[in-house]
Design brief:
Length: 179
């Protein structure tokens, strides 16, 4: 019987060395680059998908909460003008003594905005009226002319953060007006 030789095609031998495995740092660098590209694409998609949604700015004082130790905090240096100093003292009273709604003073001794102004005015009706007027002006600047009184503004909140912030802004406003 004749023998036949099969001629199987032979593969050419590579002229370069086989690729070496990547080190851990190189693999992490490649993955980091790929993830950065994917995150950038996701950020652009998010911006495009939410561009039509209107948002209101967030005050960081309302969003960030830190533990307060108001009884250990000394009162700030007083403003030189009487109305500004009164508003500053009222702000400090709410900060240290507590804030309430629905009454000038509650059973725990916490005050509303107007109650803090009244107690800090120490029976000076003219000073109290001036402070309440500046406070109402500061509130209307921030929240619009629809606010009819300081007590109605105070009673519209469940937390004292915004009312206390408005007392502080009113003190700055009174100082700027030299009141």
């Amino acid at each position: 019987m004749p023998t036949t030789t099969s001629s199987a095609p032979t593969r050419p031998r590579p002229t370069t060395a086989p690729p070496t495995a990547l080190s851990l740092d190189e693999r992490l660098a490649f993955i980091n680059a790929a993830m950065t590209v994917r995150l950038d694409e996701a950020a652009v998609a998010y911006e495009v998908n939410t561009a039509h949604i209107e948002t209101e700015p967030v005050h960081l004082g309302d969003a960030l909460t830190v533990p307060l130790t108001p009884t250990l905090q000394p009162p700030p240096a007083p403003y030189p003008t009487p109305v500004a100093a009164l508003l500053q003292r009222a702000h400090h009273r709410l900060l240290t003594g507590g804030w309430c709604t629905g009454a000038l003073v509650d059973q725990d001794g916490a005050h509303c905005m107007l109650g803090a102004i009244r107690i800090e005015a120490r029976s000076d009706g003219g000073l109290e009226a001036g402070a309440a007027a500046v406070l109402l002006d500061a509130i209307r600047r921030e929240f619009g002319d629809g606010i009819d009184s300081v007590p109605s503004f105070n009673d519209g909140f469940v937390s004292g953060r915004i009312p206390m912030r408005m007392l502080d802004r009113a003190a700055h406003l009174a100082d700027a007006r030299c009141l």
